[in-house]
Every structure is written in C-alpha cells, then in structure tokens.
Design brief:
Elements (H helix, E strand, L loop, with lengths): L1 H31 L2 H10 L4 H11 L2 H12 L4 H12 L1 H13 L6 H4 L5 H8 L4 H33 L2 H4 L4 H10 L6 H17 L7 H6 L2 H18 L1
Helix pairs in contact: 1-9, 2-3, 2-4, 2-9, 3-9, 4-5, 4-11, 6-8, 8-9, 12-14
C-alpha cells in the first residue's frame, strides 16, 4: 500500500512538473518571437548589429530595450533614452526582492539568475503552488525566452536591410503592443488602472512639447500622484 501511494505521488508530481514546463515554454516561445521586431526596430533606428545584439544579451528586458531604441529613433539624446529605459527596468529590482524569498536559490546561482528576473519569469514563478514548481517555471521560462529572444533579435537585425523602409511595415508599433499585452493583465485594481491611465495621458500629452524620451520619464509621476490622491480619499472616508 505504501509503495502504491509513493508511486501515485510520484506520478502526480511528474504530471505537475510537465504542466509547469509546458506553460513556461508557451510563455517563452510566445514572447521570445517578438525579439525579431526589436531587432528590426533597433537596426532601423541606427544601431549597429553588435549594439543591437548586445542590448538583448546584456539588458534583456524588452520594454526597456524598445523604449531605448524608440527614443533614439525619435531623435532623443543617449542620456534621455537611457534614463527612460533605466526607469522602466527598475521594476525588475522589486521582482527580485519577491523572487529571492520564493525561489531561495543558492548564493552562487543568484547573480546568474538575476539576469532572468523579468516580467514573464516573475509571472510564471509566482503562479506556482510550490517552491519546486516555481523554480522549474522560472528556469524554463528564463532559458527559453533568453535563447529565443537573442536569436530572433539577431535575425531581425540581419533582415532589417532586406525589409526596406521599416516604418512602412509598422514594426515600430510592435514594441508598445507587446508591452501593453504584458501589462494589461496585471492591472487588477482600480488604483493600478488609474496609474496606467494617467501615465498614458502624461506620456501622450507631453509628447509634442518635450524632447524624445522625456515624456516617458514624466509619465512615472503618475504613480505618486495616484497614490497621494488615493490616500487622501481613504483618509476622508475614515473621518466620515
């Protein structure tokens, strides 16, 4: 009886692991293919093949990469473009704080795992019921996405010249579209949706009057403004 129970638990655990791997690979492949759009967009903005590939290899956070090359393509300076990309990437540091407790990886592994702390790996890891499943989801998502993203970045950068005018293909919209697709499911509360809405208004409203890249930085003001307003509203409610 004990042997049968152990065998059944083993089979159940194996099925659970396979389900995590399947879901993680689905995320990795789906998002990794958008690296092609980044490669084309980056090459179209004037970056060399080496610069484009280095961004994917070293930065490896899609929203920040698209923000950087988008600002450069719009005529922004390197400083404002890098600043906008940096502020978008800061969120990964907060992901790391949560994942460090969840995954509890050995110290020697953490510096390498930090490279894979992005939206997708965080979402897959946090969705798992156990630490083992979270580790599997994190590793499979990170590995598949990193390899495919860098491969498609290379292919996109190499093929940019054969596509001709990249603006005619509308690939400049691929970055914002991918980012919105990743962001939308995360906006679950009214406060989060208010922050996103105000950020869009600030970014679009300031786009015609500020240098390229600066509206992205100004859009970051949406978070403290909404949190301040939400705090005041709750304070008034408590007084009543």
């Amino acid at each position: 009886m004990a042997d049968r129970t152990a065998l059944k638990d083993s089979e159940t655990g194996g099925k659970a692991d396979r389900a995590v791997v399947r879901d993680a690979l689905g995320v990795g492949v789906a998002v990794g293919l958008s690296g092609f759009a980044f490669g084309v967009t980056s090459a179209g903005s004037g970056l060399t093949l080496m610069q484009t590939c280095a961004l994917s290899l070293l930065v490896f956070t899609g929203a920040s990469q698209f923000a950087l090359v988008g600002a450069l393509a719009a005529g922004g300076g390197p400083f404002t473009a890098a600043a906008g990309a940096f502020f978008l990437g800061v969120r990964n540091a907060f992901y790391g704080l949560r994942l460090s407790q969840l995954l509890a990886l050995p110290r020697a592994v953490r510096p390498f795992a930090a490279q894979w702390v992005i939206d997708e790996t965080t979402a897959v890891a946090l969705a798992q019921p156990t630490r083992r499943a979270a580790r599997i989801g994190f590793v499979v998502t990170g590995l598949s996405l990193y390899v495919l993203w860098n491969l498609t970045t290379l292919l996109g950068a190499l093929g940019a010249g054969t596509l001709g005018d990249t603006d005619a293909w509308g690939l400049d919209a691929a970055g914002p579209a991918v980012f919105l697709a990743l962001l939308a499911p995360m906006l679950k509360t009214g406060t989060e949706r208010a922050v996103a809405g105000l950020a869009v208004l600030l970014g679009l409203g300031l786009l015609p009057v500020l240098p390229a890249g600066v509206p992205v930085l100004m859009a970051a003001l949406a978070a403290p403004v909404v949190l301040w307003a939400d705090g005041r509203r709750k304070g008034r409610g408590d007084e009543e």
